[in-house]
UniProtKB/TrEMBL annotation, chain A:
This is ABC transporter permease. Keywords: Cell membrane, Membrane, Transmembrane, Transmembrane helix, Transport. The chain crosses the membrane at residues 21-47, 67-93, 105-129, 156-177, 212-230, 250-276. Belongs to the binding-protein-dependent transport system permease family. CysTW subfamily. Residues 71-277 form the ABC transmembrane type-1 domain. Pfam families: BPD_transp_1. It is found in: Cell membrane. CDD domains: TM_PBP2 (cd06261). PROSITE patterns: ABC_TM1 (PS50928).
TrEMBL record, chain B:
The lineage of its organism: Bacteria, Pseudomonadati, Pseudomonadota, Alphaproteobacteria, Rhodospirillales. The keyword Ligase does not apply. InterPro entries: MetI-like, MetI-like_sf. Residues 70-258 form the ABC transmembrane type-1 domain. Keywords: Cell inner membrane, Cell membrane, Membrane, Transmembrane, Transmembrane helix, Transport. Belongs to the binding-protein-dependent transport system permease family. It is a multi-pass membrane protein. It comes from Azospirillum endophyticum. This is ABC transporter permease. The chain crosses the membrane at residues 14-39, 74-96, 108-130, 142-161, 193-219, 239-262.
Length: 286, 270
């Protein structure tokens, strides 16, 4: 009797009513909607001028050559930052996996500290290090390596440095996890079969870590496309990215249509890159 | 691992480790520079400082504007955490019990605020809030920050629930416990660490948020990040070194708590 009752209760509990589950998700969905729905709304507005359907905002992007320069800057910046992050981050992550446990934990903590430090604080530090009468110029001048201060802040160079600094931890952490999951016996087997370290690395380790590498690189590139704060502060007006142009269109020119059209293009590019990263290498963050 | 190590020639290992040291130095350099500089006695930024003092901290603690912005930021981050954590946990629990396709789609929706470039969310929210009269209002700012923080809570809680045996909660309910009590008494203690990590992410996300706040957090509700951004854009005020050092210490304490609570080596998820 009680057994049967329990069985019925259990099956009732097992299939929690859909309404209950929906109620649990609904408040969060509404809050997400507050930031997502207006963006979609703006997306629709970008295809109209004064309430009439029109592609004028997109036409201007093609006609006005300054937009081409903005797209070029954004892609160059994202490409360069991604290239440096991958070329430096991959071997560095590999080096961390070679360390004994205690040292690798220490190395990871060193990666985690800037990761957790406010983005503005880090950008500020780079402004101070790279500015005309800044620390780096001071050291280079004192060391007699240069005669006049180099222009490092308010430039494409400064922006690149600041962005690499932000992207490295994002790249290192998932890659480290994926490298750790590679069975060390496979490389050892390659050695025992007579492979040189170079050969073992390129034929065994690199292909096995390729997924994490590609996913991490694509993710880095995608995140770089949307940067606003770093190019604004370290670029000092000399680096105009898509995000900066979008902000200017809204705040300076109150031109919502132009801003929205750029936003649509940016979202489409980001979406395609994410789709590519999914098809190519699974999701780096999972 | 160690035996793999032995196959690498010492020269190879040397350059790998030298590169690692350079990378780690590059990563830590900003932190290493800002803190000593904030203790400088001079009128402009110098490193290393020739004389030490707490004058920039005095300027900070003597400025009602900076203090107001700091207080606003702490209030907004706390409210965001208090809102995002229970809502995100509830959503994650529901997702973990829904059909897989439904859960996948909803999880995708929850991740949207992290995937869409933040400038787009910023102008969208600004556009909406102008119409609702919510620009520069506390509820408006907290709602937007909560949307950014929710993905962290949902993802960390979901990963915690992965290893939790749902039958335990059902057992408690079959023994007569109210569903809420069964959740609080049985499930929550077992996913506590994931929830805590999510809450910490939520707090830091809100505290660090710049771009959306630039659009919607002004006037009496100006946030610390907005004030910092504006002073950085206009001039390099040494007070920011003091503010930054306070934030750095806070984040190191945060990392420490997180590592103690959750073990090492887990990165912030996107």
């Amino acid at each position: 009797m009680s057994l049967r009752l329990n069985a019925r209760l259990l099956s009732a509990l097992e299939t929690r009513s859909k309404a209950e589950l929906a109620l649990m998700v609904l408040p969060s969905l509404m809050i997400v909607a507050v930031v997502i729905v207006p963006a979609i709304w703006l997306g629709f507005l970008s295809f109209s001028v004064d309430g009439m359907p029109s592609l004028a905002h997109y036409q201007r992007m093609i006609d006005n050559s300054s937009y081409a320069a903005i797209f070029l800057t954004t892609f160059q910046l994202a490409g360069l930052v991604t290239a440096i992050t991958v070329l430096v981050g991959y071997p560095a992550t590999y080096a961390i996996t070679l360390l004994p446990p205690r040292l690798s934990a220490l190395a990871l903590a060193c990666v985690a500290i800037p990761f957790w430090t406010s983005l503005l604080v880090r950008t500020y530090a780079w402004m101070v290090i790279l500015q005309r009468n800044g620390i780096l110029n001071g050291w280079l001048l004192d060391g007699g390596l240069i005669e006049r201060p180099l222009r490092m802040s308010n430039s494409f160079f400064g922006t690149t440095v600041g962005m690499v600094h932000i992207m490295l931890p994002f790249f290192i952490f998932p890659l480290y996890a994926s490298m750790r999951s590679i069975d060390g016996n496979l490389t050892r087997a390659a050695y025992s079969l007579g492979a040189t370290p170079t050969r073992a690395f390129f034929d065994v380790f690199l292909p096995l870590s390729k997924q994490g590498l590609i996913a991490g690189a694509l993710l880095t590139f995608v995140l770089c496309l949307g940067f606003y704060v770093t190019p604004q502060l370290l670029g000092g007006g000399n680096v105009t990215t898509l995000s900066i142009k979008i902000q200017q269109n809204v705040i300076v020119y109150a031109d919502w249509g132009a801003a929205s059209a750029l936003a649509v293009v940016l979202v489409v590019i980001v979406g395609l890159m994410l789709l590519a990263s999914r098809l190519l290498g699974g999701r780096a963050t999972d | 691992m160690d035996s793999t190590n032995a196959y690498l020639s010492p020269w190879r290992r040397l350059w790998l480790h030298a590169l690692l040291v350079i990378v780690l130095f590059f990563l830590l350099a900003p932190v290493l520079v800002v803190v000593p500089m904030s203790l400088s006695a001079s009128n402009y930024l110098e490193f290393p400082p020739r004389e030490w003092s707490f004058r920039w901290y005095e300027t900070f603690f003597g400025s009602s504007e900076w203090l107001q912005a700091t207080r606003n930021s702490l209030i907004v981050s706390s409210l965001t955490t208090l809102l995002a954590t229970p809502l995100g946990v509830a959503a994650a629990v529901a997702l973990s019990r829904s059909r897989i396709t439904t859960a996948q789609i909803l999880k995708g929706v929850f991740l949207l605020p992290q995937v869409v470039p933040v400038i787009i969310l910023g102008i969208g929210v600004f556009f909406l809030y102008i119409r609702l009269g919510l620009v520069n209002s506390l509820p408006g700012i907290v709602t937007a920050h909560t949307a950014l923080a929710l993905p962290f809570v949902v993802v960390t809680t979901l990963s915690g629930l992965k290893t939790f045996d749902h039958n335990l909660e059902i057992a408690a309910q079959s023994l007569g416990a109210h569903p809420v009590r069964a959740f609080l008494g049985i499930t929550l203690p077992r996913i506590k660490l994931s929830v805590l990590a999510g809450a910490l992410f939520a707090f830091i996300t809100s505290l660090d948020e710049v771009v959306i706040s630039l659009f919607i957090a002004g006037g009496d509700n100006t946030l610390l990040t907005k004030k910092m951004f504006l002073s950085l854009r206009d001039q390099l005020d040494p007070t920011i070194a003091a503010v930054s050092s306070i934030l750095i210490v806070m984040s190191i304490v945060g990392v420490f708590i997180f590592m103690v609570a959750a073990g090492t080596g887990k990165g912030r998820r996107l």
